[in-house]
Amino acid sequence: MARTIWKGALSFGLVNIPVGLYPATSDKSIHFNQFEEGTSDRIRYKKINERTGDEVPQDRIVKGYDLGGGEYVILTEEELESAEPKKSRQIEISDFVGLVDIDPVFFRSSYYLAPEGEGADKAYALLRRAMAEAGRVAIATLVMRNKEYLVAIRPEDDALALHTMYFSDEVRAPGRDLDLPETGDVTDRELSMAQLLIESMESEWDPGRFHDTHREKVEAIIEEKRQGHEIVLQEGPDPVAKVVDLMEALNASIAAAAKPGSETKSAKRPAAKKTTAKRAAPAKKAAKATKAPARPKTAARRKAS
Question: How many domains does the chain have?
């Protein structure tokens, strides 16, 4: 059973729904400790005064904002606390918008909201169904861990998903910040070929097809070494990027996608539905569809006894 990380109430109009907030994802990254080579001695970090080299105790450390040029503004804990948002156990919906109107770049982290306590189930189910049938996403604010978040609440098949979001001034404008090419040099024939290639590679979204191959290989190496096996590293040559004609590359790609047995061949799936959505919606939770990936084989041989 997942553990709630926040409890409060979700409100729209005069309706209050007691809810709990649960993580929608789990970090599967492999984390390592650091040791001195040849020993089992852990490496620890200390907070050091860069001028004197002396270790500084936690109660002597203060926070400062870097103004540049070696100038800092030092702030006390009391001054920082005065700027914290007012503590609240309320997620108050202020707007309902279309999901396609929200660029996915605004989404940060994903959670699930679940009803908490007696009498919350019906109001929760009512809100989820009404939002789903209206095709709307709720916009609200959430105060959690002394920080205020802009959030979007999205109806899923059986739950309400909550996504924390970036504020508008935190999202970069690519046309302003990046050196991007113009599209005027693209010919109609090149565009037609590219569209044909996209059509030949269309498929239904299946998150179970994708998994972290790097993590699987590291887990396999750890298991081999745990069993006392010696790891034999097999290094291949680095791939060399070839400069080819654009039309030649498009033609070859289309031919490869159309080969019998190709998973992306459009004839093996229903025709894709056309949509006027301006942007893609966040993917639904993949837990139900995702199977545990098979552990890859790693070249290894036992040590000579």
Answer: 2
